[in-house]
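Hi there. Long-time user, first ticket. I'm pasting a complex I've been working with (about 192 residues overall). I'd like to know whether the download I got is complete or cut off, because the file seemed smaller than I expected. Thanks.
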Amino acid sequence: MKKIAVVYHSGHGHTETIARHVVDGVQSVPDMAAVLLRAENLTANPETLAEFDGLIWGSPTYLGGVSGVFKSFMDTTGKMWRKQQLRNKLASGFTVSSLPAGDKQSTLLSLFVFSMQHGMIWVGNPVLPEQHNGVPYEQAANRLGSWSGLMAQAGHAALADAFAPGDIKAAKMYGRNFSLTLNRLHAEETIS
Ligand SMILES: Cc1cc2nc3c(=O)[nH]c(=O)nc-3n(C[C@H](O)[C@H](O)[C@H](O)COP(=O)(O)O)c2cc1C
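Hi, the file is complete. Here it is re-exported in full:
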């Protein structure tokens, strides 16, 4: 059984909704067990992350970057960086914002650079936006066109679970792809 943690912060529940669907996607692949961990609960003991095979980061986009709570968590991993305790683990990231663009790319880049500093292996979001195959925009997975990580959009002041169906579908596909990538990585290890 491979262990994956989805580490997230969510001020008003939107990022948490996407995180739950990512977990569903991760666990749609046999022998993958995923847990949801709130970033603010890890700051006292981030070393617990070393027990996982893969880590998926999730933060809302606040003012064009990760939220302050998520950044505080990131900074507590400094001691782990010195020992490279997360080296060669799989990593990926997702973000939610209220505007169609909203500078979400900047948030994903922060999560990417954070993962690279820890020596991790980044997994993107290799999904062709389904509107290109005629799926209606709201229903289309990766309708927002993000390959470096997962993006989702919650309308301004929307309920925590009020996402376009395409964003929910994309979250599940993204989680599933992460698990399949982890399987491929371990398959290569057993060959050599
Ligand atoms: C302090 C703050 C800053 C925000 N900055 C942005 C932003 O830069 N771009 C954007 O599109 N939305 C922005 N938003 C909206 C949030 O990204 C959006 O409401 C998101 O769904 C929040 O997710 P959460 O409920 O998980 O916290 C901001 C919200 C807050 C509270």
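A couple of notes from our side: The longest strand covers residues 54-62. The CA atoms of residues 94 and 150 lie 4 Å apart.
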